[in-house]
Fold these 2 entries.
Entry 1:
Amino acid sequence: MDESSSLNDEYLEKARDIISEVESGNIDEADKLVEELSRSRDKSLFQELGKLTREFHDSLNNFKLDSKLTELTGSEIPDAKERLKHVIEVTDKAAHKTMNVVEDLLPLCEALDDQGEEIRNLWKRFMKRDMEPQEFRNLCKEIETYLAEQHQGTGRVRKGLTEILMAQDYQDITGQIISRVINLVSELEVSLVKLIKDSGALMEETHSGTGNKKEKASLDGPQVPGLESNSAVSGQDEVDDLLSSLGF
Amino acid sequence: MNKDMKILIVDDFSTMRRIIKNLLRDLGFSNTQEADDGQTALPMLQSGDFDFLVTDWNMPGMTGIDLLKAVRADEKLSALPVLLVTAEQKREQIVEAAQAGVNGYIVKPFTAEVLKEKIGKIFERVGAA
């Protein structure tokens, strides 16, 4: 406080000198004094800045030494990224595996259905006694073939369904991985809150007016139960309603 | 609506492209091609005589909405029917897409019926135009 009171005296003296020089018409002298005045103001500003910087630097060093944060940024966060990438890979694989089985079995089902339909039609005719003996013999052969193929086909379908069932095993793994990342995020949250609180004292002179500069509505991604946004619609019907209310 | 029409499917997730491709095939449309981003899709559209574009919104290089705007701004492509299939369902997004000239908007998760209905509607209107 001694520093600043001597600064105030200096200002006062200089200010008085400036006034007297101006009143005497010595504008050049006055200019020189104004320059000296602003220089000493700058000096005190630099001193304050130096003090702040030192304090900030010290705090930062303290944070670096905070092992939790170091751990988080050094290894756990990179780990978490890898883990989440892995989740994407695993779910991608499972999805494609499942779709492979589906793409394999759908044509099989269609073929069996078509064959079955053919036989159904022939059988109808037979039941109406609208069939020659030779046709009937052919029908018998067709039925025999069909039954064999159907047996084989259902075997394939059962196998495929089991494959699809097993392909869901990813969920257990991804569930665990994601839970771990959730824990990590919580830890991160705690550390950041601490960081903000600790630096709060220094950062009193925060920028005013940056306010809530949320840019043009950022993308939300899929709506998650419990996190629904107020400005989101829910479901295709509401989308359709919104569009038709706008005339589309 | 011609079952042979050439369709471009754009989504950065291969699983979604595959699902849509299969659903389209079930509806009788087998003439499909794929792109994994708006950026790769645009040149394909410009040189490819596609009849229909199905695209996601959220993609890293060029988003679906920007792809739509680029298509509408391109003389050759401006009349191309575009269907957005996306997880984005905020009102501002839907309105933005409509104002940018999208022909249909489907939110994920969606069903095969919805896809069929929207495609039908789009080509009904295009036919009437």
Entry 2:
Amino acid sequence: MAGKNTYEPVPVEKLRFARTELRIHDTVPATKPIGYMKDAWIRFRRNKMSVAASLIILAIFIFAVITPFINNFEMSSVDGIYAKARPKLKAFERSGFWDGGMNLRLNNRYYMYLTAIGAGAEDVYGAGVTWEDGINSPYYPVISRGEAYDSAGAEFRDARVDSYYIVGFVYVSMTREMFDDVREWEAETGINVFYPMIDTRSRYMDPGNARDANFWYRHAANHAPLNARGQRMDTIEEVMEHGFADNYLRDSEGNARYWVRQDRGMLQVRVLYYNYYQYMNGHEPMHALGADGQGYDIWRRLASGILLSFALAASVSVINLTIGAFWGAAEGYYGGWWDLIAQRICDILWGIPFIVVAALFQLHLVQTGRVSPFWGLVLAFVATGWISTSYTVRTQFYRFKNQEYILAARTLGAKDFRLMFKHIFPNAIGTIITASVLVIPSTIMIESSLSYLGIVAFNTRTTISLGTMTSNAQGFLATDPHILFWPSLIISLLMISFNLFGNGLRDAFNPSLRGTEG
Amino acid sequence: MRMFKYVCKRIGLLIVTFFVIVTICFSLIKLLENEVPLGMQAVVELARREALGYNKPIIEQYGIFLRNVITKWEWGYSWHINYMMPAQETITPRLPSTLLVNAYSIIFCIPVGIALGIWAAIKKNKITDHIISTSVMLFVSVPSFVYAFLMQYTLGFRLGFFPVIVSSLHDAGGSWFTRTMLHSMILPVLALSFGSIAGLARYTRAELTEALTSEYMLLARSKGLTRSRAISTHAMKNAMVPVLPYIFGIVLSVFSGSIIIEAIFAINGVGQLYIRSIHLRDYDVFVVTSAFYTIITLASYILVDLSYGFLDPRIRMGER
């Protein structure tokens, strides 16, 4: 092959310049430069899951912030009578969904008792009501009921019952002035609060029911209603036919009496609690997310718990970052003896189980009243939390401190502090931001675990944490699961979202992943 | 030899750390005021405290404490939980339930977690992988007490498959291994395992996918091995090297998670003892249970570090 290599030399006049009309040189890049942060932001935006997660976090935060303005309840407002009330929205009343209903199994007499609440609410003046009046009353507690069925020889119905109307009537003591005030309010609004008192000494009354203001009808010792002639009515049909016979306290002219004098000038009155509540609070009793075991509004408490979690997690994250950054920078930059000693201190602190730290801080600072529970917990978190940040920073300093650009900066006269925080530290910023964000879910989780265990206590009238809410709710797990549901849901949502958000940040700050995603 | 030296150094460091932590716990707890006893027994109580040296300066008390621990293995006395019982003995009867629940959970979660991880890695980017990865994300994030509640409510209360709380030793017929006891332990074991299973599955998946894309796998396939054989003999071995140390880490996380699970399922274990010692201010019991948890934490850290070195020949121990 080599023998065929017989090229003729090209004469000079055949050569000519190519592209003389073009000037070939570098130009200033026409596009804008993309900095580290902007680059990270572009990559973060592409990660749909993380964006969704950050939106959820934002939504939860906004929910917590605006709650005090749109919710009717104060943090400290508590009503034991509506404790454990189910979630209810006015728009869904009697719809079967989000209507404050709970499922009950009613026997005949209980079904009559509930109908009597509706009927009694229609009978403001003691003039007599029918079964139909009771069923059609707006205060009738039963939302829907199934067909009757036989179980162990007795008749039962499965029914959905409104947990607010089921309270019915309640005895209340009040002063004469307050009585007049309520009467005025009644006249103004047209809502009836006072209902006729019951003759508890009557022979048509089971003495065991004397404190129950819903037994306004004549009944036998087994709670079965009696008709006007004093005969027992055991079936629903009988009651439907004859109606309830009232047992009101009447004066000599036969008019119903609305109060009984008690000692010290107080009056005992019988109120329809739903309406009395409106008089007391200015709004209908309606907990959008239900009421907890003590009668606090879950929505309001939840919002406060969320804010507490956010505040706690943010303070821990910021303080950890600050201490960890300085400690790690000093360790990594100076090295030597200082590094060795600092590392041993870290090793020892790192070995203490967190629960021991938290317990010691609680016993020493919080229970002696030196700091508030909040700051006690922040201190406990910070006591060992900064170590992992300092490890990260230290590693970065070891990696960068011997590089040429540092030497160059030093030669130009940069001081230690400037070298540390202007030249080396920014290299670690992505890792540190990610770590600080990932501290937030773990802080929320540990806080809720600790308050669940009762090691930290946020359970006052004005402060509550999500963990304390779950811990308080555990006793009602079997009967009233909604109390436990909301705080658990929010904790889980926060944890999932913060983890997704943190993972998204980690990927965004990692330039080696550039272009790998679709 | 270098390995032996390194192990000795680590154990020495463990002892020093343990000692320092116990010292901190002891002195901080003794700095707190003891509440003044009331009632008929007050005089006896005060005399007892005097005799046990509770009124001496803390440094002297610490000396007595150390001497008793080292010579007689005495960690002080319980004043509230089991009156006048030596503190270390309050742990003993509560240890089996804690250890059993933890052991069952660890035994359960290791094979399940690894299997799920392997399955997800083999089916990478297929529907199986997506399902496993999403549920792993959920279970890693959601706190264990939330699914403990969920299971308690659905499986325990609504459906009635399992008891809601763990039965006591007496109800279970006096043994830890009766059917009643095992049956009642299923829920707490499950609640304790889910998080660890998810963590383990995620870690295994990450390691195995990395191994599957490596060049030795290409070589194995090109020399004629089937995919399954290449995975089981080549990729798996390498992927398991970092997974095994991770398992030791799981032991620690299971132990610390078990405190809250014990509270939810009313298990009378060490975790409950610890919580009660804080609430009742039973200081000596607090110190000894803190020591118990500290030693578990430290031991698992060491196990993780050492196992890396034993399993991975690329890591030489004792080198900087």
